[in-house]
Design goal:
Elements: H1 18-26, H2 100-111, H3 116-135, H4 137-147, H5 153-163, H6 169-181, H7 185-198, H8 203-213, H9 217-226, H10 235-251, H11 255-268, H12 272-284, H13 288-301, H14 306-317, H15 323-335, H16 341-356
Length: 363
């Protein structure tokens, strides 16, 4: 699943996992605040408050996945980005093939997260090496070879960010192989981040296998992120995805995994039975971030069933419920109009209360 949102602060490089470093490169990914979450959400400008909705729930186009907000989508090595520098014969001027300086820049940026110059250098190195990989099969081969062996968190983040920009079958095959069978959790997580950036259906089987047996929460989260939207999927193809997401939502020990599973299930479910875990989470999950994600999932699913509106009204009318849960329930109800009388009454009462407290009427 592809989160949209804001680019995390690159200062978060210090002491985080390979998956966290990939996040810093790819941008736009953060979860509900929790112990050990390497990238907490940025506050809104001019405020120290938590954003009104998780950034995953931000409306708008899919977040870019490169080295800044305007980065293009992954492209094939066969697609030229423009004319390279030419020598006297008109042929591309040869460049020395050396990945080490770029990896050194990545390690320095990870070791010195407050050094803005180091961060600028590593971003420039990543952009330049990505272009090199897209233009030069030998550069791609050396990048894949290093990705296949390194365990260094900074290197994994750098290499995954580069490879996630290369729409090449060899990259996809390598990422699937590592995600499925590598012995090291940080490498499995980095491989899933490559698959996430590629936005490929090839990630689905590997993700489902991992979610069924993976003990490491960071790897499970990376696997969940890699599951694409069900565009073009058949009814039969959706069944195992929905089943596994329902299991994660009902039983996973990690709150962020449950929250992500709720939103994914809103997109992959096929009927009432498969959507029921979302309503159960909205009513009973002990973590408010999961309940907020379940309320948002009701908005994503767009189901006008009585069971959905009743669960949203219950959350909205509970004075002890978390504010973000109630806010998301209100927005979800608004998106499901026209509403039956009881639901409409609850919606209008909450809107009046918001306006009285100075909230914006943007539901």
């Amino acid at each position: 699943m592809k989160d949209s949102g804001r680019l995390p602060a690159l200062a978060a490089w210090a002491g985080i996992s390979a998956a966290g470093i990939v996040v810093a490169f790819l941008g736009g990914r953060w979860g509900a605040p929790e112990a050990g979450n390497p990238l907490p959400p940025p506050a809104e400008e001019g405020s120290d408050k938590v954003p009104a909705r998780p950034v995953e729930e931000h409306r708008g186009p899919r977040a870019s996945r490169g080295y800044g907000p305007e980065a293009p989508a992954p492209r094939s090595p066969q697609e030229p980005a423009g004319d390279p520098s030419r020598g006297e014969t008109g042929e591309p001027a040869p460049r020395p093939l050396d990945l080490e300086p770029a990896l050194l820049a990545a390690r320095r940026a990870a070791a010195e997260p407050e050094d803005e110059r180091a961060l600028e250098v590593v971003h420039r190195a990543a952009a330049e090496w990505t272009e090199r990989v897209l233009d030069d099969p030998e550069a791609l081969a050396s990048t894949l070879a290093r990705f296949d062996t390194t365990r260094d968190a900074a290197e994994l983040g750098f290499l995954a960010a580069v490879l996630g920009r290369v729409a090449d079958p060899e990259v996809e095959e390598a990422a699937v192989r590592i995600a499925r069978g590598d012995a090291h959790p940080s490498r499995r997580a980095a491989a899933f981040d490559v698959l996430d950036a590629l936005d490929t259906p090839a990630a689905i089987d590997a993700a489902l296998e991992t979610l069924a047996r993976e003990p490491d929460a960071a790897v499970r989260l990376a696997a969940l992120r890699s599951i694409p939207d069900p565009t073009g999927a058949s009814w039969d193809e959706a069944a195992p995805v929905a089943d596994r997401l329902g299991e994660i939502l009902a039983h996973d020990s990690d709150a962020e995994a449950r929250r992500r599973a709720a939103v994914l299930l809103a997109r992959w479910h096929r009927g009432d039975d498969e959507f029921r875990p979302v309503l159960e989470a909205l009513s009973h999950d002990p973590d408010p971030a999961v309940r907020a994600g379940a309320a948002y999932a009701c908005e994503v699913a767009g189901r006008r069933d009585e069971s959905v509106t009743a669960a949203l009204v219950q959350a909205l009318r509970s004075p002890s419920e978390d504010n973000l849960v109630r806010e998301n329930a209100w927005r979800a109800l608004g998106s499901l109009g026209p509403l039956p009388p009881e639901a409409h009454e609850a919606y209008e009462a909450f809107r009046a209360a918001r306006e009285g407290e100075g909230g914006s009427d943007d539901g």
